[in-house]
């Protein structure tokens, strides 16, 4: 059974103002997402599911989905604020989306096989899709055994400033023990360091695994997520900005020994447009990969 690629794209409308401005970074105006779908297809994924907001459904289907339909089956699901469990009502002050794990839950009715989760606007690299697809193909008859692609920290830094990363701690067998969000990481005095809340600096190893939101799950994850979402909502009744993130859910499953998560090492370099100043560098990196023959140009014919 081929795994499915689940693309978190519900934030696209707000981030770009309009999908018309979806940034063309490749030599023929390709977006980062174009390269992600291409890499997933050649790694052996069998279907793509996008989660978006209904407000830009028509434009998304015309501009995005139409590109891929002749290459791989595509489905679209929706993340809306009022999609809540029975017994809960949307508070009028709530404007912020419910977070990445709420977005994952929206695919319950269309995904019945092992699946990967990625961000729409992150470039993950060809090797990462192959590594993740190979692992997901081994997971078709399992439950409560998940995985995550762990990027080497030095392969994810921005040349334009500090970054936030989910720094992973693993055991001797590469299973995830914890993810700690470090909000200010940069190369300083020749070494990678993070600054804590008290402005103290601490060094991190170059190959420290970090999460870039590239996960592998089996369908039982949906049920775990729905159960814990109820507890999350109960715990955040008065907090209209609280978000139900994937690492929050994963941490709960690990802590309660409900599931384990294998961290898969990748040599791929991650990149994205964290700062406006990153854009020329991203364009340059993609052009170099095209020049090396990693990708055809134009990408989709």
Architecture overview:
Helix 3 links the parallel strand 2 and strand 3. The protein starts with a strand and ends in a 10-residue tail after the last helix. The protein has 301 residues and is an alpha/beta fold. Strands 1, 2, 3, 4, 5, 6, 7, 8, 9, 10 and 11 form an eleven-stranded mixed sheet that branches. The protein has helices at residues 12-16, 32-43, 57-68, 100-105, 126-137, 220-235, 246-255, 279-291; strands at 4-8, 47-52, 74-78, 115-119, 145-152, 163-170, 176-188, 191-195, 201-203, 209-217, 260-266. The longest helix has 16 residues, at 220-235. 29% of the residues lie in helices and 25% in strands. The chain has a single domain (4-291), classed as Spore Coat Polysaccharide Biosynthesis Protein SpsA, Chain A. Helix 2 crosses helix 5 (126-137). It has eight helices and eleven strands. The mean pLDDT is 91.
Topology:
Blueprint lengths: L3 E5 L3 H5 L15 H12 L3 E6 L4 H12 L5 E5 L21 H6 L9 E5 L6 H12 L7 E8 L10 E8 L5 E13 L2 E5 L5 E3 L5 E9 L2 H16 L10 H10 L4 E7 L12 H13 L10
Parallel strand pairs: 1-2, 1-4, 2-3, 5-11
Antiparallel strand pairs: 4-10, 5-10, 6-7, 6-10, 7-8, 8-9
Helix pairs in contact: 2-5
In summary, what is this structure?
The protein has one domain: Spore Coat Polysaccharide Biosynthesis Protein SpsA, Chain A (Alpha-Beta Complex), CATH 3.90.550.10. It has 8 helices and 11 strands.
């Amino acid at each position: 059974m081929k795994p499915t690629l689940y693309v978190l794209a519900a934030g696209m409308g707000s981030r770009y103002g309009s999908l018309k401005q979806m940034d063309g970074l490749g030599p023929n105006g390709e977006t980062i997402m174009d390269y992600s779908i291409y890499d997933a297809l050649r790694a052996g994924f069998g279907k793509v599911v996008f989660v978006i907001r209904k407000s830009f459904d028509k434009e998304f289907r015309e501009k995005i989905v139409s590109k891929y339909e002749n290459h791989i089956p595509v489905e679209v699901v929706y993340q809306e604020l009022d999609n809540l469990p029975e017994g809960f009502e949307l508070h009028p002050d709530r404007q912020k989306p419910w977070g990445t794990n709420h977005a994952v839950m929206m695919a319950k009715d269309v995904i019945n096989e092992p699946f990967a989760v990625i961000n729409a606007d992150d470039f993950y690299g060809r090797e990462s899709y192959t590594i993740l697809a190979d692992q997901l193909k081994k997971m078709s008859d399992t439950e409560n055994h998940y995985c995550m692609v762990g990027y080497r920290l030095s392969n994810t830094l921005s040349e334009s400033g500090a970054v936030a990363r989910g720094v992973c701690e693993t055991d001797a067998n590469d299973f995830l023990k914890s993810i700690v969000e470090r909000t200010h990481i940069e190369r300083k005095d020749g070494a990678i360091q993070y600054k804590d809340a008290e402005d103290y600096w601490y060094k991190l190893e170059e190959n420290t695994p970090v999460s870039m939101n590239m996960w592998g799950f089996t369908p039982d994850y949906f049920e775990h997520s729905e159960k814990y979402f109820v507890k999350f909502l109960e715990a955040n009744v008065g907090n209209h900005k609280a978000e139900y993130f994937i690492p929050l859910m994963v941490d709960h499953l690990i802590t309660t020994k409900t599931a384990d998560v294998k961290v898969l090492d990748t040599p791929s370099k991650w990149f994205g447009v964290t700062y406006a100043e990153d854009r020329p560098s991203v364009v340059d990196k993609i052009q170099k990969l095209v020049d090396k023959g990693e990708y055809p140009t134009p990408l989709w014919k």
